[in-house]
Structure of DNA-3-methyladenine glycosylase I:
Amino acid sequence: MGPTLLGPDGQPRCRWCAAAPEFLHYHDTEWGFPVTDDHRLFEKLCLEGFQSGLSWRTILVKRENFRKAFLGFDYRRVARLGERDVERLLGDSGIVRHRGKIEAVIHNARMAEVMVQREGSLASYFWRHEPNPAQLAEPQTASASAFSQALSKNLKKQGWKFVGPTTVYAFMQAVGLINDHAAGCVTRARIEQARRALALSIP
């Protein structure tokens, strides 16, 4: 079984995007495209943390509920949430009701505020950790890497939670820090083009 299959338009795509109806659009329009917006970076790291132990489909189908529950992942607003909000969120059936993960989002929002004060933006911090593509494993052959381990270690040192190497690797895949689309996937070239266009646009 090869790493790609033909999509509805006859073009090859990563095989995983056929595993659920929601995946094709996500694969074609989001996964791996470079993200520089701080709210979206914060959202993706939080959602990857929520995915820990679960399937990505579980998170993806609930994403709009997560966005509503966590104030559009505006980390400045999320940082103001307290224990009463945690209890409210634990009663929200539209999201994953896991106390540790909910508390981690609020805690990490406060860590994000500190990071932005120091770095200017989340984007400037995360994109400074972009790996050298020549040092990466073959696409979709790893669930963590030396790069995700280093970034995870750095985030934990700063106090962030639910940012283990596997979670961070999935985050790096999702936001385009690495292009992990299969070599024959039609979207891979589009992402490379987007990454080149990004070169001078990071704040």
